[in-house]
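Q: Convert this sequence to structure tokens.
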Amino acid sequence: MSFSLLDRFSTIAPRYDVVLCDIWGVVHDGITAHAHACDALMRYRADGGVVVLITNAPRPSPWVIRQLARLGVPADAYDDVITSGDLTREEVARRGGEAVFHIGPQRDLSIFDGLDIRLAPVEAATYAVCSGLFDEDKETPDDYRGLIAAMRRRGLFMVCANPDLVVERGTTRFYCAGAIADLYLATGGEVLYAGKPHRPIYDAALAKASEVRGVAAEPARTLAIGDSLRTDITGARTAGIDGLFVSGGIHAHELGPGDSREALGAMFAAAGVTPWSVTARLAW
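A:
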């Protein structure tokens, strides 16, 4: 499958009514906003386009909106936000007052705010919600093999609130909940992945875009932008929409200096997915 190389988003923007844009790695790096990306999204919206930011953040969208403001992302850069945390909350609410074992840092407990739950240890829980590692600065997924074995013995169902494997904060990499969920799945555990690349989060994002536009958002007129082949580009394929791959994000270290068509093609072949188009960074 062929792909096009783009210098600027403005060359293809008129083809689309809706953009579903990844956040971390495209709009900011975990420390500060990317001014060029924010400018591109604001210009797109000024021309009538709708932007829904779509993220595997394991927290509710209001929390992410506040974080975007702290990092310097203008409110004019997007119309709405949908997170894997939002979908996780829906699943937790559906399960009523069941006992939940939470795997992840204390800061992620906001995912349960206002919900009818009981936090419990692994020995007493009826299912688990994984939002990340307890201590992402010191731990790796291998540290969780004993816990995973204990969960398997009890046959616990897991909700993965962030299907990402890793994330970069500045130049430092941290493991995410998806790395633990994949280990659990590999042992035979049952996992519900709440975010990208799985279809429910795209359906939810298109529904939000439809509300903003006042008419249904059509997949054929929608573009997904992201820097992860595993989540963003595979997810776009799953949802039947075009994918714009930002090569300067999470995969930049694999490509090295310069994005040659040969290096990109080899990486896409290894990943088993090819985007519709590629740009080094999101810029108008």
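The first strand starts at residue 4 and ends at 6.
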